[in-house]
Amino acid sequence: MEPTLSLARRLWQAIEPLHAVVYFHPDPAAAAKEVGLKGWWMGYFAGRFGPLGPIGPEAATAMAYRLSPALVARALPDAWHLASPEKILATRVEAVGTALAAVLPDAAKQVETVATLLSEALVGCWFEGRPLAAGWAGLATALPEDPYSRLWTLTSVLREHRGDGHVLAAVALGLHGLDASVTHVATGVMRREMLQKNRGWSDEEWDGSVRRLQASGYLDTDGRLTRSGGALRRQLEDTTDRLAAGPIEQVGPLGIEKIIGLAAPLSRRLIDEKIVPVPNPIGVPRP
To answer: What is the pLDDT of residues 163-180, one digit of tens each?
Structure first.
């Protein structure tokens, strides 16, 4: 029997594909190229961390957590010499709004309703210790008029709020970013080939994490989770959900169910129309 998912996790599954369009639709990458950025990863890092200004690779690596420091350093700070954070963000938000509108042209009213509900839920977010979410929340104080761009901006705040909480939970458990990815693969829900390549880790780095986790008793000799490793992963996911509970407390379970009921069909369309692939490195399933 499948475990009952928390409301916090169900909310994430319902809205994450709406955010993830920025990573898989060609328009945002093309927009980044048009402002002078070089390569997909430079657009990713500059677009994701742009709300915090022209930060360096050290701070970005700390927040990116599961991504290789070498991957970050190839993009930042060079991106800021090619275009300002303000220009990058404005172009990115417009491009992803246009992309969503192209895929969901008949859903403008539904998109607007979900955006309104997410604005209410966002009031419950707790930003202490969550720098990336706080940066994106700053953008939410002056939301775009276009409902698709507005929805995407709000989903970005909420997913980074959850993501920052996940980092806090993992660090508290003593997991390095690579260790968190290795234990994720060890659950069996994600393939090493997909996650290792996407996150920019070498075989040597990955295998070193495996040995470290085996020595700690979290992985067995075949690289699978031990009983202790399984308990660690459950604690990580449960704490992540608990730290993401602010929006649920703000609008209540019925309010969150309403958001899920409206957002999940939109996300399913993005997946069914092959805009957001499943499986994916983010780990979000079809809601």
So the answer is: 999 999 999 999 999 999
